[in-house]
Amino acid sequence: MAEIEFDCEEPATGADPATDAFIRESFEAVDTEVLTRLVEHAFKRMHLADDTYLSIAIVNEDEMERVHIEWMDLPGATDVMSFPMDELEPGTPENPSSGMLGDIILCPPVAARQGADAGHSTLDELCLLTTHGILHCLGYDHGTAEEEAEMFGIQRSILEEFLGRPAPVETRH
Fold first, then answer.
1. Which of 116, 128, 120, 111 is nearest to 26 (CA)?
2. 132 labelled as ligand-binding?
3. What's 36's domain CATH number?
4. Residue 97 above 90 pLDDT?
5. 68 is annotated as contributing to ligand binding
6. pTM for this one?
7. Structural domain containing residue 116
8. Phi first, then psi: what are they for 101, rounded to 5°?
9. What is the pLDDT of residue 63?
10. Is residue 47 annotated as involved in ligand binding?
């Protein structure tokens, strides 16, 4: 079983009732049991050892914007950020990779908006973003068309195997 640590922040509310309800609903869509099973599935698929560590932080938009500015010098909250630790790469069935994969930060309100725009649930979007973050921690990127085709192909395959249905549509920004 993968070593997964979740850190769930409280949603930031207080703007107006409709916005507060949306933010609360987005945080309520975070299902750590589903995300844990997804991570375990992705680890098996990418041949990561059972003792591989991953931290997932669930944060509000203010915190995500702070981290986004600090690490990327970009304003605004984003959907997911990944911070690889041990520069792990996918292993093999005979020699699985092991160590500290890294940290993934998810922002449920951004995920909820993206999921709605793409026509799927917030939980589906969070699954997509978690898988995306794992692949970034394993060194995959989507800076070129070739890299994107490879990364998104693996991402789609992992999600379809896990969900047992077509994967949610990727958000490109």
1. 111
2. yes
3. 3.40.390.30
4. yes
5. no
6. 0.95
7. 1-161
8. -65, -50
9. 94
10. no
